[in-house]
Write a structure and sequence with these properties.
Blueprint lengths: L10 E5 L5 E5 L6 E3 L2 E2 L5 E2 L4 E5 L2 E5 L20 H14 L5 E4 L6 H12 L5 E5 L8 H6 L15 H5 L4 E5 L9 H10 L1 E2 L8 E2 L3 E6 L3 H6 L5 H7 L3 E3 L10 H15 L11 H9 L6 H12 L15 H4 L24 H10 L4 H8 L3 H10 L2 E3 L12 E3 L2
Parallel strand pairs: 8-13, 8-14, 9-10, 10-13
Antiparallel strand pairs: 1-2, 2-5, 3-4, 3-6, 6-7, 11-12, 15-16
Helix pairs in contact: 1-2, 5-7, 8-10, 13-14
Length: 406
Amino acid sequence: MPHATVSRRHAEIRWSTSDHHVVHDLGSRHGTEVGGRALPADGHRLVDGDLLRLGDALLVYELAAGDDDPAVDRAAVPGEAPAIAALRGRLARAATDPAAVLLIGDTGTGKEWIARELHRLSGRRGPLIAVNCATLSPQLAESQLFGHARGAFTGATAEADGWFRQAEGGTLFLDELGELPLELQPKLLRVVQDAVVQPLGAGRAVTVDVRLCCATNRDLAAEVERGRFRRDLYARLGRQELRLPSLAARRGDVLDWIDRLWTGWAAVRGSRLGLPTWRASAARALVAHAWPDNLRGLERLVHELASRGAPARPFDLDDLPGWLTGSLASAPPVADVDAATTARPPVPTRAELVAAWTAHGGSVRALARHFGRDRRQIYRWIEAHGLRVQDDDRAPAPGGAISPLR
C-alpha cells in the first residue's frame, strides 16, 4: 500500500483452516488495529464490518453478499460495498417481474431512490407516482388512493381519479406502508389481486394497469402478529422483498457518500467548496459511527461542516460535531500517526519500556502480549530507545536485563 504510515511488511490477512480470515501484524512501525484496539499477539479473527487501521490507512472487511448488475444506474444506486452491489443485482432481477415489490429498510436508507430505479428498469411508459401513507388524511385516504365520484361526500363537487388511476401504465410507490389504515388494507388487496379500483361512491370498479412498489421501516411480520396488518396483504406484497442495508452495513462507502453529498450541497448553493479531507482519527470516527439516521445523518454532518466554509486543513476529530463524537466516548482513544506531521511513532517511552520489561521478568514474549504487538516490534522498540538485550538480543533468558547499547 503506497502510504507513508504503512510499512513494507505491515500486516497479513490469512485464510484459516476454520473457514475465516485472521489478521496479524508483522512488526509494523505504526501498528495494526481492529475496532480501535491493537491486535493481540495471536492475531484477530475478522468478522463482517470490522474496521482495520494500518498506520493511518483505513480498511473495511466486508463479506461478499451477491452479484452486481451493470444495468442498474450507479448514480441512482451508488456505492462499492458488497451489500450495495448485491442490492443492485436483486433490483435488476425484480424490475423485470410485474409482481409488486416490497422495500424494507431503516429510515434514510434511500428507499425512494430504489423505487425510481425500479420504475426505470421496468420499462413501464406511465409515470412514477410517490405517495407517503403517513400523510394520508384518515377521512380522505380512500378517496385519495382510489378516487371518488361526484357527490360521493360533502365537498365532492367533481370526480377525482385518485393516485392509482393517475399512475396508469406506470408505478405507484407507497412509502411508509405500515401506516396505512387497517380498514383500507382489504381494498388495497383487491387492487393487487384483481387490478381494479372501486372509486368512492361509484357504481362500478375501474380496471387499472399499475405496478405497485411499497416501502416500510416496520417489521410487517410482527405487525401481522399484532393484528395491525393483514396477513393476506403481506403475503401478496412480500413476494419480492428487497432489503436495503443500513449505512453501518456498508461502512466502506461512508467517506464516498460524504463527498457525494458535499458536492451536492455546494452545487445547490453555487459554491466552489473543495471536497473535505480527514485526519485518520476523524475518518475512523466517521466510518465507525453507527449512523442511526443513515444518509440523513450524513446530510446533517455535511451541512454543519460545509457551512463553516472552505476547510483550510484536514478535519480532525475535534472538528466533528458533538452529537457525533458523543457516541464515541466509550471507544478507545486513537491518535493519528501521519508520518508527515507527527514527529514520533506511538511507542512506549524508554522508562515505560524498562518498567514493563522488569515487571514481566525480562520476557520478550510476555512484553509482546502486554503491548499487543509482535515480538519483532518489541526488539525494534528496544533498539529505538538505545537499549539492548544483554548477552543475547534474540533469545533473552528469563529474568534477563536490558541495558544501553554499547
